[in-house]
Amino acid sequence: MDNFNLPKKGDYPAYYDHYLSLLGGSDYCQLIQDQIADLEELFSTKSEEWFNTPYEIGKWTPKEVLGHVIDTERIMTFRGLCFARGERSSLPGFDQDPYVLHARFGQVSEKLLFEDFVAQRKALITLIRTLSEDMLDFVGEANGSPITPRALFWIIPGHFIHHLNILKNRY
């Protein structure tokens, strides 16, 4: 399956409304692929110094932002897989700041981070192509709240847009 509709309100915690409000249309796999090109276009114009400089003291560097996006996508994909397969156990939340701190993204080249992002996106697309429409609406619990795989998978490109806009406008 390449395309599927956005989730309905109530299929996810209200916290994710912002990310989902950034989306339109239902050509999911094309959106995921287009975002790879968007990131590549932005990164191709930037210097090594840009990748390692936060826009403000205490904020992440662009490499840390990308690393955060990759980590979040892996976690959302894992949650979506679990719930699509009928997992009934509650899955934990995650605190993004320790993840970024412990990942040491500053020591990883921007080229490798971009390759990792592309690989994660390809894995996401192939997973989604194995799922049936009804699997997208199974309800699981993550971070103490009910959520569907459909919502998790759509949050991924919305979260990316949110951070891409920050990279474009603040750095």
Walkthrough of the structure:
- It is a single chain.
- Helix content is 58%, strand content 4%.
- By secondary structure, the chain is mainly α.
- The chain has one domain: Up-down Bundle (Four Helix Bundle (Hemerythrin (Met), subunit A)), CATH 1.20.120.
- α4 runs parallel beside α6 and α4 runs antiparallel to α7.
- The chain is globular and about 45 Å long.
- The chain starts with 16 loop residues before the first helix and ends with a helix.
In short:
This protein is mainly α and 171 residues long. 58% of the residues lie in helices and 4% in strands.
Helix content: 55-70%
Mean pLDDT: 96
Distance between the termini: 36 Å
Q: Give the name of the CATH architecture.
A: Up-down Bundle
Tally of individual helices: 7
The succession of helices and strands, N to C, reads HHHHHHEEH
CATH class, anyone?
A: Mainly Alpha
Strand order, sheet with most strands: 1-2
For the largest beta-sheet, the strand count, sense and barrel status come to: 2 strands, antiparallel
Domain DinB-like: 34-166
InterPro entries: DinB-like, DinB/YfiT-like
Protein name: DinB family protein
